[in-house]
């Protein structure tokens, strides 16, 4: 077994293997990675996956530290991509709720792997960072 900080000797197994890749799919994957790599997107998906349906103010509180403008931009993009549903109830004052779609929940499940990975390698990453800092002039 390789030490966590040593390079692996086996190449990663990517979904496309050695087959020819679809340029349209490559573009979509790059676009989605760019979008979900944004911390607010990940935190909104996490909050909705954990708590289900939330109103805007509840979502703001669960995400923490996000401006109203950034949260609005984030939920609009998630809605445009089909990852969440925004429901407006015709009442005064207006009531708006957000919830993940099935596709959004599946993306949340994929994020769960990142948290599990971080938990697994947390000490190794911290040790690597300390070693790196110790080597700096």
Question: Could you give the topology of this structure?
Answer:
Blueprint: H1 23-36, H2 39-51, E1 54-55, H3 56-63, H4 68-80, E2 84-89, E3 95-100, H5 102-135
Antiparallel strand pairs: 1-3, 2-3
Polypeptide structure, described:
Strands 1-3-2 form a three-stranded antiparallel sheet. The longest helix has about 35 residues. The protein is globular, with a radius of gyration of 19 Å. By secondary structure, it is mostly helical. It is about 60% helix and about 10% strand. The protein has a single domain, classed as Arc Repressor Mutant, subunit A, CATH 1.10.10. Helix 2 crosses helix 5.
Task: Write a concise keyword list for the protein shown above.
137 residues, mainly alpha, three-stranded antiparallel beta sheet
Q: Quick one: CATH class?
A: Mainly Alpha
Order of helices and strands: HHEHHEEH
Work out the oligomeric state of the chains in this entry: single chain
Mean pLDDT score: 86
CATH superfamily: Winged helix-like DNA-binding domain superfamily/Winged helix DNA-binding domain
Report the biggest beta sheet as strand number plus sense, adding barrel if it closes. Answer: 3 strands, antiparallel
What's the helix count?
Answer: 5
CATH architecture: Orthogonal Bundle
Structural class: mainly alpha
Q: How many E strands? A: 3
Helix content: 55-70%
